[in-house]
Design a protein that fits this description.
The protein is mainly beta and 340 residues long. It contains three helices and 30 strands. Strand 25 and strand 26 form a beta hairpin. The radius of gyration is 25 Å and the shape is globular. The N and C termini lie far apart (72 Å).
Length: 340
């Protein structure tokens, strides 16, 4: 028999188009069922609507401070300012370049919470760190306000609601409020301990706005515990049971860190063990359902791993960056290293 001649085969490539990973990082779905627009690894790349953008570099802004900057505070009065807190001091970091002498020194820690508030006297930056009392900037000078009725050094979070300044007292279930339009004076409290069903202490105070049973928008005030319970109130004068009433108690995920919320429109974005969730959605849904509607749904596994490993570290923070179309979560790996 004459052997059949073998004809060599030529390898041919098949061109396939792979879409840009505009769907973002996906650590939820199996590879087989994952959309082609999602990515398994996405480092230093930001998905946009129809393209992806490489993360830009950075430039130094304010320099010359020793130690880690653990708080940045923006003052939005007539002359806006940016203050940085490091090494037990507050620096004016508004201008690029080397900072001058510290505006405030001798602080116990650098971990402030703050809010802006305006009354007839001035536009104020009000900040607390759970150790050094209530500090304010009025556009020209720093001061320590006199607050009576409570040990001001124990106040660690602050917000404003219906012309009042509110504080949370650390390691307690108490929220404190000042008289209308005041930044100092006698503080009065409400105790949430009898309202929360799962215990814990106060973690933060939020002020969402939403529809009030078909009668129009209203501003509410909510007190969130370290166990993740929200006690929501509506009204005006907290000293009167006739004008300040409890609207409901809701079980949410436990918050992560002290900087776990940010206002977005009338809603509040929450950073808790379920991910980054909408307060209004979390109030209406079971936790297992609200997890699926979370911003972090696609990266739930990565997020949960980070919480388990680093949840007790200081530095967790949620930031909305509208100009860049982004919500940024800071994850502190250690005291000197963080990822976003």
């Amino acid at each position: 028999m004459i052997p059949r001649r073998q004809v060599p085969r030529v390898a041919r490539g098949v061109a396939r188009q792979i879409p840009a990973p505009v769907g973002g990082l996906n650590a939820r779905d199996s590879v087989a069922s994952m959309p082609g627009s999602d990515a398994l690894i996405l480092d230093n790349i930001f998905p946009e609507r129809s393209w992806v953008e490489v993360r830009k570099g950075y430039t130094s802004h304010a320099t010359g401070m020793t130690g880690a900057v653990e708080t940045l505070m923006d003052y939005n009065g007539p002359t806006p300012k940016l203050f940085a807190v490091a090494n037990g001091s507050i620096f004016d970091a508004s201008s690029a370049g080397a900072v001058g002498a510290a505006a405030v020194t001798g602080l116990t820690n650098n971990r402030f919470q703050f809010t802006n508030f305006t009354n007839a006297a001035a536009s104020w930056l009000i900040c607390v760190n759970g150790a050094d009392g209530v500090r304010t900037w009025d556009g020209s000078a720093w001061a320590t306000q006199t607050i009576t009725g409570v040990t001001a050094a124990n106040l660690f979070c602050v917000t404003t609601w219906k012309r009042r300044v509110w504080f949370g007292e650390q390691d307690t279930s108490k929220a404190w409020y000042l008289p209308t339009d005041a930044v100092s004076g006698a503080a009065n409290s409400i105790n949430l301990g009898a309202v929360w069903r799962y215990g814990g202490t106060i973690a933060g105070i939020v002020a969402p706005s939403f529809e009030n049973f078909g009668t129009g928008l209203d501003d509410y005030i909510g007190f969130i515990s370290t166990r993740g319970e929200l006690a929501l109130y509506r009204g005006t004068d907290p000293a009167s049971a006739n004008t300040f009433t409890l609207q409901g108690v809701f079980r949410l995920g436990a918050p992560i860190g002290r900087r776990f919320y940010v206002q977005t429109g009338g809603d509040i974005a929450l950073l808790n063990v379920d991910g980054v969730v909408s307060l209004t959605e979390a109030m209406q849904l079971d936790r297992s359902v609200s997890q699926k509607s979370a911003v972090t749904d696609k990266i739930t596994r990565l997020f949960t791993d980070a919480v388990q490993l680093y949840g007790s570290n200081f530095g967790w923070q949620l930031t909305v960056y509208p100009e860049g179309h982004r919500v940024i979560v800071n994850v502190p790996i250690s005291s000197t290293v963080a990822v976003q």
